[in-house]
Amino acid sequence: MKRALVFMLVLAVSTLNACKESEPPLPDNLIQFESAEQGLDAATKEATIKLKLSRAVDAATPVTVQVTPTGIAAGTQFTTTPALTGNTLSLTVPAGSSETSFKLTKADNIFLSGTETVALAITSAASPVLVGTTKQLTVKFTSIISSGTNLTLDGGTGGSSAVNAVFVDLSNNAQSSVKRASWDLGFSSGTDFRVILNNMTGAAAIALAKNDLNQVTAADTVGLVLSTSNFDPAGLKLIDDVSGDLTKTVIPSISATDANNKVYIVNRGTGGSTPAKGWIKIRVLRNGTTGYTLQYAGIKETTFKTVSITKDAAYNFSYVSFDTGAAVTVEPAKARWDIEWTGGIYITSDGTNNIPYYFSDQVYINFLAGVTAAEVMTSTVTYDAYAESNIATTTFKADRSVIGSNWRATTGTVGVKTDRFYVVKDAAGNVYKLKFISFISNDGGVRGNPKFDYKLVKQAN
């Protein structure tokens, strides 16, 4: 009996070891740049250069990058953070991370012809990380027109509730990430005076019949339902138009007559796993012809704070955070991004009515700056076959959500939809075709870090 028991134990261990031995090894963990070329035009002072890995590392991993400037001097005309040692950058990928980065900053008040470059080369990475194929990157001190590349977006932590929104400039091979909850109100730089809520956190607002912030107390919130997460059709009246139509914001156009501007109660976040925050009472006035004055306070506070916001024509909006009580940077300049990946409140049906619903993986186009796009089914023409000759029969739309969440499925066959791709015309007239590669484990991706490929179809004249 004992012999039989020992035999069975040995057999089980041998079988387990055999299974372990038969498991395929993980593929090489490669580190490389996001693209082979990036531009830094005259209006852009700083660029964040990212080095991406195939997967997260278990331990802190040193990486060395050689920096070779041409026509521009390191230390006086540009600097890096961390600083260069000679012509070498020493970086570290933190344990548990799948990327590292550094900043390249132009000095103020320097004259550049646009021919200057900084060549970057990954020369080494500590074992077991290996250097990938895109090991060289040329930063040009001028705008570029990219021929296309692959990008993996940095949505940060959170998976389906990823904490970041990501803005992409296709022609510049560039992406920039910002925390979705880093702002509360956006102030339009357009000719009208419009204020938007943070759709990315599911913010909601309602007007009171008062125009004096000091007269508003907690009593004014009794009985108020100010949520977009209860699947009530009435919630659509508490949020800005989901198409981005600035004539349909919850807060109407700010009047030049102060007495006409009401107090609003704002619920700062009700969607996308945004942590609950205290409600805020606000009032917005015009500040002459070029800006706004924001008054705000907690519901129970008896005094309010004031923030002045000046319109900046280089941007769609200027943003303010109640956490900091000041302006914050969110979108890049409107000429420096084409699409935005994020989560946000959209609409769905409960079978009878449209209701507000938080959708992850939304892709918006920068329609306010003139970007247009089209969805193309592969039954009409394949992604690889789509060429300049197809542009004339492509119907471009200035629809913020022409891509939306249409590119992926979260029920049925979960993953990127392979029966469609998108064509994006940027504000300058460059036309790119774009297809998503992955976004979730079902299609080989990672939730919160979608991958897509894009290629230049036609350069603007």
Automatic annotation (TrEMBL):
Signal peptide coordinates: 1-18
InterPro entries tied to this protein: CalX-like_sf (IPR038081), HmuY (IPR025921)
Protein's name according to its UniProt entry: HmuY family protein
Presence of the UniProt keyword Signal in the record: yes
Signal among keywords: yes
A Pfam family the protein falls into: HmuY
Keywords linked to the UniProt accession: Signal
